[in-house]
From TrEMBL:
UniProt source species: Achaetomium macrosporum
Membrane topology, from the record: Multi-pass membrane protein
Xref: SUPFAM superfamilies: MFS general substrate transporter
Keywords: Membrane, Transmembrane, Transmembrane helix, Transport
Gene Ontology CC: membrane
Broad class of the protein's primary localization: membrane
UniProt protein name: MFS allantoate transporter
Residue ranges, annotated region (Disordered): 1-21
Molecular function terms from GO: transmembrane transporter activity
Length: 499
């Protein structure tokens, strides 16, 4: 590591090149500096006492820090996220293990149990986004995770539909902090070139959760069939289921300077909320989440029943769902690696969605006698989350200004909730066992998602070109510590969007 003197900024003349108001940036940034970092990013605390010096992190130090961060953070995030998804799939396993009869579900009540989780998630998503900004990120997330685990175990005590409604709603409330919290943690500790693969890794534990959950559920079902059980098998499913030194902390913060977005700011800024609401990308992300998660909400809650519709037994459906999780794991990890390796997260992720579309077409088009072919089609659909995860990583990489980032993350996950609420409702009881209308709806949704994905890619390319034009203007001068001033991505001409 070496320290080099930073240059003092010269007065800048305003320009209005390419939708980037440099004069506005200068005024806003200088106002921040006059406030002695009170309104700037938390990262400036790491550099107290180092005025006039700029820390450069050499390659060896960078690798050492990355190894420490990966070793301490990734295992915990992966484990929690795997259990997070297992929570969602337990209802699908329970659906073929007797829960409908035991708690007296009739008509479309099972569909509503699938949706009610997301009503709780939806109701608490924006409040939890604000709390993630105001409170210590790690402690608040940990508290929500612990409470969520306790509530999940309570499902085993459910006696009726009303009790199941309450449990599912509050599961959604306390799970609402997990995904946005992890997205924020990833943006704080990893550079842009590292974020896509890391988000892909911890999100891939959805697939590991499905693998683990399917094997556990199958083992329980077989064991109960052979030896009996004191309680119903679906209840067993619900029951089973200090990082761096001061110097390293400073270096770790300096390491992510290249992100041009700091590591956090606890002050709510109305202008950033307004900017998020008028940014086309906020709504493109929201639209994608809604449309993509209609299929997700349906498949997550009905995949066991879908496999049964292929001609397999209920017990076999628990085991045969396992490879679907493996497909998701492989697709997400490969996509995350290739997206970061070639700087094309969006285009790489679209391959997974195309694979899923082909898989669903196979399910619809193949004759009922072709059980194996339709099962392979189901496995192919499990590559569908790759664009959702890529866009989640872009919330980390492409949205700057902490109030704006938490707002966009909240809207993205509100869209996720809306889609998952709608999803189970497209699987109508009268369409069982084939659910053809639901399958056709899924194909249409994924086709629309592809178009949205390509629009987002086009928009970011266009904005990067305009920012490059603004920086090339002779009157442009980069501000000192500009990356730590909690500027938004549109305010900061140095900010480049990841594709």
């Amino acid at each position: 590591m070496e320290k080099v003197d930073s240059e003092s900024p010269a007065p800048a003349a305003p320009t209005t090149a390419a939708e980037v108001d440099i004069g506005s940036v200068e005024k806003h940034a200088n106002d921040k500096m006059l406030q002695h970092s009170h309104d700037a990013d938390e990262a400036l605390k790491a550099f107290s006492g180092l005025e006039g010096e700029r820390i450069e992190v050499d390659e060896a130090t960078n690798k050492r820090l990355l190894s420490i961060i990966d070793r301490h953070m990734m295992p915990l995030m992966c484990l929690v996220y795997g259990m997070n998804y297992l929570d969602k799939t337990t209802l699908s396993y329970a659906s073929v293990m007797g829960i409908k009869t035991d708690i007296g579900l009739t008509g479309d009540q099972y569909q509503w149990l699938g949706s009610l989780f997301y009503f709780g998630y939806l109701a608490w998503e924006y409040p939890t986004a604000r709390l993630l900004q105001r409170m210590p990120l790690g402690k608040y997330s940990a508290a929500c995770i612990i409470i969520w685990g306790c509530i999940l175990c309570c499902f085993a005590a459910v006696k009726n539909y009303s009790g199941a409604i309450a449990i599912r709603f509050f599961l959604g409330v306390f799970e609402a902090a997990v995904t946005p919290g992890f997205a924020l943690l990833t943006s704080q500790w990893y550079t842009k070139r590292e974020q896509g693969s890391r988000v892909g890794i911890w999100f891939s534990f959805n697939g590991w959760g499905q693998i683990f959950g399917g094997l556990v559920a199958y083992g329980i079902a077989v064991g109960v069939r052979k030896h009996g059980s004191a309680i119903e098998p679906w209840k067993i499913v619900f029951l089973v289921t200090g990082l761096l030194t001061k110097e390293d902390w400073t270096l770790a913060v300096a390491r992510v300077r290249v992100n041009q977005q700091g590591i956090g700011n606890k002050h709510f800024k109305p202008y950033q909320l307004k900017e998020a609401l008028v940014d086309p990308m906020t709504w493109a992300f929201f639209f994608y989440a809604v449309v993509a998660d209609i299929p997700n909400g349906g498949i997550t809650n009905f995949f066991s029943q879908l496999i049964v519709s292929f001609g397999y037994t209920q017990e076999q459906s628990l085991l045969y769902g396992v490879p679907g999780g493996a497909v998701e794991v492989v697709a997400l990890i490969i996509n995350g690696y290739l997206g970061d390796r070639f700087g094309q997260r969006l285009l790489c992720s679209s391959g997974g969605l195309m694979c899923a579309i082909v898989g669903m077409v196979l399910i619809v088009a193949l004759p009922l006698s072709n059980n194996v072919g339709r099962l392979i089609g189901y496995y192919m659909t499990q590559a569908s989350p790759t664009p959702f995860v890529a866009l989640l990583s872009l919330v980390s990489s492409n949205v700057a200004g902490y109030t704006k980032k938490t707002t966009v993350a909240a809207f993205y996950l509100i869209g996720y909730c809306v889609g998952n609420i709608i999803g189970p409702q497209v699987f109508r009881p009268e369409d069982a066992p084939r659910y053809v209308p639901a399958e056709i709806t899924i194909i249409v949704c994924w086709g629309v998602c592809l178009l949205d994905l390509y629009f987002i890619c086009w928009w970011y390319r266009r904005q990067n070109a305009k920012k490059a034009e603004a920086r090339a203007d002779p009157s442009y001068v980069r501000l000192e510590n500009q990356e730590w001033l909690d500027l938004t991505d549109t305010e900061n001409p140095e900010f480049e969007y990841t594709l």
